[in-house]
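Entry for the shared binder. Reason: the reviewer on the internal report wants the predicted structure included alongside the sequence.
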Amino acid sequence: MINWLSSKLDRISQLDSYIKPEKVEHSIKLDSNENFALDSQYIMKMASLAVAQTDLREYPLEQYEEFYSQLSSYTGVDARYLGAGNGSDQIIELLLSTLGKDQEVTVFTPTFSYFINRCELHGIKLNKVPLNREDNGLPQEEFLNQAAHSDIVYICSPNNPTGNQFAENQILKILEEIKEKLILIDEAYVEFGNYSLAKRIADYDNLIILRTLSKACGLAGARVGYLIANERFANAFRTSIQSPYPINSFSLAVATYALSDKAYLKQTVQLVKSERERVSGALNKLRGITVFKSDANFIFLASEANYERILNTLKDDRIIVKRFGDVNGLRGCLRVTIGTKEMNDKFLKSIYKAFDCCN
């Protein structure tokens, strides 16, 4: 093999790679933060409407205009501040590959592993600041000190995997104090949180917000994401950085239909938030685990010495959750998606069974 190529492949093979979630037939899938609270028949109806209006022989021209119009209405942000992508993952990849070369990035940990992995793939130096162990809060002064030596700052809020959304005044302070740095705010789960910075976008030339339709809109399989940025950057992204047709016609049509029904989406988000509080309350009654406050559509917990017993019981009951093990000094960490009431009830029944065995 060519020497330089072999050397690059050797380096790439040593990096952490994405591991696809386990697919188990007839299981309850609570490991990928998909939105099963959205009725499947509703999704099928949207897909049928999309099929009827889509001619896959043509490039999606008018579909983009319709999509941006609905997206503008949904976000409350003028379309000139928006840029669409094939999922927010693809947008992250484009930003790092076009803007990240020879730059340094500050992140806190734990956070969205894909972002860290892509930085490592592109050889971008990472400055990592651990979150506060007791509440997964952001150690602001230490974070600001590290950010001062970086070019790009990445903040996932609500954070994945911990679920907490950082206080708005805390994020605004970071934006005010490091105006010469590019700030990426990942708001993938923001609909389940308490606020969005979207309507502040015109106030900050250094701010890019990353959003997705995979979570609140239940379109993980459609792969539709978008960014919100100042007009100059958004225009450059749409016309030069992004590929001409990053989203296929069918996904655009489905996404446009989904965004047009804001009342139903809001109702579903409220249902998830209500279930999140119910499940959190039930888990908090158990001794031997720590349940962290969540502003997302999942719950992060440290199960300590009960980790393996819980995982084995959930496996026996065909319930799949995201396992992390030890994270930032916390033992036996799990992330559990909030599903339908029926799914959540089965999860709680299983975990209570595990604790009956443990205690």
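Summary line for the report: The longest helix spans residues 262-284.
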